[in-house]
Amino acid sequence: MTKKRRHKKKGVFILFFCLVMLTIGGGVCWTWLNLHQKQLNQNDAKPIYNQNTMIITPTQTLTNDQKASYIFYFETTNTETAKKILSIKKSDTGKLFKVNIGTLIILDLGNGKYQISYDSLQNIFEGAGSKTRPIHLPMNAKGAFRIKNAGTGKIIVIEKR
């Protein structure tokens, strides 16, 4: 075999080897991208309160001593703010509020008797004020909460007769 022919065979072998390596590398990259995309889609599928999605809550059946019920939805971020106050009125029922950690929520419900509760899987609410650190609520305000964690939750208010 001549020297020229050996170089030609060697060049074809190197070209073939490079094509095989590119094919394998491309396949690995393609597989990684598909797996990564599936993980992103699974993360996006987690249910959260979203203002673009209608939040359907079963209508509560009121007992004889109950006048009305109000539900307020909250979505919090990891961002902390100092001294931000959100005043909520009865007319805000069914709305989604996007708030930051540290936000003080005041329930400005007016005169009347109310049963106030909250629900959050991430435990985002804490009562505001205590005997050692009192807060002064505005007139007719019935309660206050502070946001302490990121997550979602709702405050449920039932007005009594």
Write the layout of secondary structure elements.
Blueprint: H1 3-44, E1 66-80, E2 85-88, E3 96-101, E4 104-108, E5 113-119, E6 125-127, E7 141-147, E8 151-160
Parallel strand pairs: 1-3, 2-4
Antiparallel strand pairs: 1-8, 4-7, 5-8, 6-7
Keywords:
161 residues; 4-stranded mixed beta sheet; rod-shaped
Could you walk me through the main structural features you see in this protein, from its secondary elements to its overall organization?
There is one protein chain. The protein has about 160 residues and is of the alpha/beta class. It folds into 2 domains: about 1-45; about 65-160. Helix content is about 25%, strand content about 35%. It contains 1 helix and 8 strands. It has one helix at about 5-45; strands spanning about 65-80, 85-90, 95-100, 105-110, 115-120, 125, 140-145, 150-160. The chain has a 4-stranded mixed beta sheet with strand order 3-1-8-5, with no helix packed on it. A 4-stranded mixed beta sheet has the order 2-4-7-6, with no helix packed on it. The longest helix is centred in the N-terminal third of the chain and has 42 residues, at about 5-45. The protein is rod-shaped, with a radius of gyration of 30 Å. About 10% of the residues are buried.
